[in-house]
Write a structure and sequence with these properties.
Layout lengths: L15 H10 L5 H22 L4 E3 L7 H8 L13 H10 L11 E3 L6 E3 L2 E3 L9 H12 L4 E6 L1 H7 L1 E3 L7 H15 L5 E5 L9 H16 L4 E6 L8 H5 L5 E5 L7 H4 L7 E7 L9 H15 L4 E5 L18 H4 L5 H16 L32 H12 L16 H11 L5 H22 L16 H4 L3 E4 L6 E4 L2 E3 L3 E7 L6 H8 L8 E4 L1 H6 L9 H21 L4 E5 L14 H16 L7 E6 L8 H6 L4 E4 L10 H6 L4 E4 L12 H11 L21 H28 L1
Parallel strand pairs: 1-5, 4-6, 5-7, 7-8, 8-9, 9-10, 10-11, 16-17, 17-18, 18-19, 19-20
Antiparallel strand pairs: 2-3, 12-15, 13-14
Helix pairs in contact: 1-2, 6-8, 7-8, 11-13, 15-16, 20-21, 24-25
């Protein structure tokens, strides 16, 4: 092997997978047509890799929904509640999305390490048993092999897989022996069609648990000793650092590591076994800037000077899943930005070009770097920009008097369904087929409808529904200086959900107000409070492709000051409840604990810059998605929000244990129903979840809301769900009042 990648985007250059999935779920296309689309995408991905000049093509990196779900099903980890579903594809999508017809909740969802990709959390219980159905990876390897490609299957490793599992009544590590045996059989099934197999252990880039650390070498040695096929152990979510020694001890034939964020390589050259090759992840698979190929060449030379040129394989640091497919489709992108960029197709070519130059020892055939961004102005501020006027306790006393809210207020997270009509009208407006006046009249009618609906449902705090917004990050970025935008730069977030990250290429600033007009209009329609809805600086930065020529903290501070101006303008125009969403606060956390404190200090500081310039009577909310808070509660607290809303329903409110242990003093809105599933939860189900939440949170701290925004749902799902939420809240309030009187 000379060159490869750990994976290619699954969605297709024109989001063919998304379209096929959603058509299949609606009953518009057959299962056969769905699989045909999948086969076409895979074949095109292999063609791109081979024609770019890569030695091997990645197989089994494709998934109809999620590769962790694929792995769970391959090894037979099917929770009991799904076992009455007999059709394999129905079972697959029920585990991913839940089943409305059978009233089955889906697997939980979490962020994939430090990325914006979401994976489905496997469930293991004392009833689980390891099996093996290798059909998917084997069929893909066989198909690629027979089509003239050189396949390299990519398999999620056993230690990472078990570490990701949620266990009930047992330990995931109880299954280590049986799972290891299943991996050995899987590799045996794949070996006739490939000379290399990649076993991904992204856990290597993190602080591993004691169980993971103790099992790592024994498990992988058993796997390696069982086969003659060449195996690569891969750290694909960052540099393995101190865990490199674990990879060396596996006995594998190659070690892949992400080297895109380091300039020192002694940890991979010292003590490396003589038989092992290094797959140098030298091209960034997580950002869209061109590789400085001459610098990358120098780094390869530095490694080669210790271990020899013949032991180096060239690769991207991670799977290219995290970048768009092909830059050539961006015909309207400004040239000075586009010329600095590379998407997945272009990154494959960069790897091949680097490999050729390295083989021929000819650095002169590589392009010289010319990827400079505009010079930045320094961000200067003092402590006065970081604090509210009074303590959270004092602010709550003031807000209780002025806002006049009931106990356990009901609200939503912000967005309402983006209907087909809304999307069509926005497209017509952007294409010049609808006048500005006509488009604004349409948006006003949508806001009127959403406000009327919420009043009819009896919600306490209203939102305007965000019909004018295409995306919670892209919308704000379009009104800020320093950003560029693609038309087809889509990246998979989960399943059929794709996002189009903006590109930060210059200094960020806010030329004019962004949300004030629509807030004022919504507030004019109701006597109830309407929340001002903003996206926070950390989330805007995390969900954009950012420049890398200045520190992360400086870019984040620039965005924070832009949002601060918007917050202050909302307050000046009568907004008394402002929500600054920081859905990505936790996902930006570095995987190694030693690196986390600096990030957390920056994230908290930038949130406080954005949020602290308002009076005590204005209530500050924030929202976070799929977050595990245990280790960072003091930093969540330090954000100093008055109310925090979080995803909690899929986990049955277990996430709230940390708020009780920490004795968090702010208000909390744990999501009481899952918006990522098409299921409509009953009022009884929501009532039960609220009751569970009250085991951790006092009634005077509890808010009642969905897990997240409703943008991805349709009205037929969202409206009855909200109706059931409001009904459950009414019942809970009556019960709480009765309990209080009885007490």
């Amino acid at each position: 092997m000379k060159s490869h990648i750990p994976g290619f985007p699954r969605i297709g250059a024109g989001r063919e997978l998304k379209k096929a999935l959603e058509s299949f779920w609606k009953g518009e296309i057959s299962e056969r047509k769905l699989h045909e689309t999948a086969s076409e995408i895979k074949a095109e991905n292999w063609r791109i890799q081979k024609e770019s000049g890569l030695t091997h093509v990645a197989v089994n990196d494709f998934s109809l929904y999620d590769h962790v779900l694929d792995t769970a099903l391959m090894f037979g980890f099917i929770p009991e509640r799904f076992k009455r579903i007999t059709d394999p594809l129905d079972l697959y999508f029920a585990m991913a999305r839940g089943s409305a017809t059978k009233d089955i909740r889906p697997l939980s969802m979490k962020k994939w390490f430090n990325t914006n990709y979401h994976y489905l959390v496997p469930e293991i219980s004392s009833l689980s048993a390891v099996g093996l159905n290798p059909a998917k990876p084997v069929l893909e390897a066989k198909e690629a092999f027979r089509s003239g490609f050189n396949p390299k299957p990519v398999i999620l490793g056993p230690i990472t897989f078990l570490s990701l599992c949620e266990a009930d009544g047992c330990s995931p590590w109880d299954f280590t022996e049986d799972l290891t045996a299943a991996y050995i059989k899987l590799i045996e099934s794949l070996s006739p069609y490939c000379e290399w197999i990649e076993i991904d252990e992204p856990l290597l880039a993190s602080d591993m648990s004691k169980d993971a650390w103790l099992n790592f070498i024994p498990v992988h040695r058993k796997i390696k000793d069982s086969t003659d096929v060449r195996l690569m152990i891969a750290s694909t979510c960052g540099d393995a650092g101190d865990n490199t020694e674990l990879a060396f001890e596996t006995g594998y034939d190659a070690f892949h590591t992400d080297l895109t964020k380091t300039d020192t390589f002694t940890h991979i050259t010292n003590h490396m076994p003589d038989h092992m090759l290094i797959s140098a992840g030298i091209v960034d698979g997580r950002n869209i800037w061109k590789t400085d190929c001459r610098k990358a060449y120098t780094n390869l030379e530095q490694i080669a000077s210790v271990i020899g040129r013949e032991k180096i394989i060239v690769s991207s640091g991670s799977s290219l899943l995290h970048v768009p497919v092909d830059l050539t489709y961006e015909t309207d992108l400004q040239a000075d930005v586009k010329n600095k960029m590379a998407f997945a197709v272009q990154k494959c070519s960069e790897i091949a070009e680097l490999t050729k130059a390295f083989e021929e020892e000819c650095v002169s055939q590589l392009p010289e770097a010319d990827y400079h961004h505009p010079k930045s102005a320094p961000v200067i501020y003092d402590e006065s920009f970081l604090s509210r006027n009074s303590s959270r306790k004092k602010r709550k006393e003031i807000q209780t008097r002025t806002l006049n809210l009931p106990v356990m207020p009901t609200t939503t997270i912000g967005s309402f369904p983006q209907t087909k009509e809304i999307r069509e009208q926005r497209t017509r407006f952007k294409n010049g087929k609808l006048s500005s006046d006509s488009y604004e009249a349409f948006i006003r009618k949508q806001i009127e409808s959403v406000i009327s609906l919420q009043e009819e449902l009896g919600l306490d705090i209203l939102v305007h529904g965000e019909p004018e917004r295409n995306d919670m990050v892209e919308y704000f970025a379009e009104y800020l200086d320093g950003f560029a935008f693609t038309k087809n730069g889509w990246v998979q977030s989960y399943g059929s959900r794709c996002v189009k990250p903006p590109i930060i290429h210059g200094d960020v600033s806010r030329p004019s107000p962004i949300t004030v007009k629509w807030f004022k209009y919504a507030q004019s329609l109701t006597a109830k409070h309407v929340k001002g809805m903003l996206t926070g600086p950390v989330t805007i930065l995390q969900w954009s492709f950012s420049r890398e020529d200045i520190p992360y903290a400086d870019v984040c501070a620039q965005i924070a000051f832009a949002i601060r101006e918007e917050v202050q303008d909302l307050e000046k125009n009568g907004c008394r409840i402002i929500q600054i969403d920081e859905a990505a606060f936790r996902e930006g956390l570095p995987l190694k604990k030693a690196d986390q404190e600096d990030y957390l200090k920056t994230a908290v500081k930038c949130f406080r810059i954005a949020s602290s310039g308002i009076s005590d009577m204005t209530q500050l909310h924030t929202h976070m998605c799929y977050s595990e808070f245990n280790s960072i509660m003091e930093h969540i607290d330090a954000m100093d929000a008055d109310v925090i809303s979080i995803e909690a329903s899929r986990g049955g409110m277990k996430l709230l244990e940390v708020f009780k242990k920490y004795q968090y003093q702010g208000d909390i809105g744990p999501g009481v129903y899952d918006i990522h599933s098409p299921r409509v939860p009953s009022s009884e189900e929501i009532h039960k979840l609220i009751r569970q939440a009250l085991e951790y949170i006092s009634p005077d701290q509890l808010w009642i809301n969905p897990d997240c925004g409703l943008k991805t749902r349709n009205n037929e799902e969202a409206v009855p769900s909200l109706k059931n939420m409001a009904k459950a809240a009414s019942v809970i309030r009556a019960e709480t009042t009765k309990d209080s009187v009885a007490g």
